[in-house]
Amino acid sequence: MADPTSTAPAADTQWLTVPTADGPMRVYTARPAAPADRAVVVLQEAFGVNDHIQDIARRYADHGFLALAPDLFHRTGTGILDYQQHAEAMPLIGAIGADAIVTDVGAVLAHLGTAEGIPTGRVAVNGFCFGGRAAFTAATAWPDLAATVVFYGPGIAAGPHAVLDRSASISAPVLLHVGAEDPTIPTEQVKAIDSALSDAGVAFESYVYDGAGHAFACDARPHMYRAEPARLAWQRTHEFLARHLPANA
């Protein structure tokens, strides 16, 4: 199911390669029909920059954003995994710690600044699942970001790469979406994230969706997708970005 609020012409898409401190990284890019002065960095689930993540990038382009989805698996050359390859995906994302995420997002931000003339203050980061943890991590390292959106990101408050203790480094506003029935982000972790952001003085919005579990906005996984929570989460996301990253600001 496409983003129901998306009405613009189809985006122009291509794969780019940008340099990082750990080697070249492929980046799926969706460009809107009109020149863009703002961008969204779309961070992948545990399965790579697959059709679903590419589709999200195109949806953002349809809304007037330059959208870039970096391949965070570039160090291993894994590429894309099938949704059935959960066991193979877990060690891959487990190996990607905060330093690697900061390196990769920093490379995309540098590319945006030099190649597109879009400064970090005109860029949002939006991550899904593992990418949600990556988006939160990026927000702690790049305080000049315009906004950060986290869709069901486990591992923020607990686990080997937890970054909740870095919340005080976040300056950009944060929006978080979590399913009430998501076992990977239990209630105590949701509360811990909210508490840490509040204590740090971060402007944030946190929503828990009844009747929704993990990956509830992933329409590529019908058994997990929940249409109404997904619609509401996307509505809130676009309203959030319209406030914090308006066009032609």
| Main sheet properties | 8 strands, mixed
CATH H level, superfamily name:
Alpha/Beta hydrolase fold, catalytic domain
CATH-derived topology: Rossmann fold
Please tell me what the overall shape is: globular
- Per CATH, the architecture is 3-Layer(aba) Sandwich
Outline the low-pLDDT stretches.
Answer: 4-8
What is the CATH top level name?
Alpha Beta
Radius of gyration (CA) equals 16 Å
How many domains? The number is: 1
Arithmetic mean pLDDT: 95
- Helix and strand element order: EEEHEHHEHEEHEH
Kindly describe this structure.
The protein is of the alpha/beta class. It has one domain: Alpha/Beta hydrolase fold, catalytic domain (Rossmann fold, 3-Layer(aba) Sandwich). 34% of the residues lie in helices and 20% in strands. It contains six helices and eight strands. It has helices spanning 51-62, 86-94, 98-116, 130-141, 187-200, 227-244, and strands at 12-20, 23-31, 39-43, 66-70, 123-128, 147-151, 174-179, 204-209. An eight-stranded mixed beta sheet has the order 1-2-4-3-5-6-7-8, with helices on both faces. Helix 5 (187-200) links the parallel strand 7 and strand 8 (204-209). Helix 3 packs across helix 4 (130-141). The model is unreliable at 4-8 (pLDDT under 50).
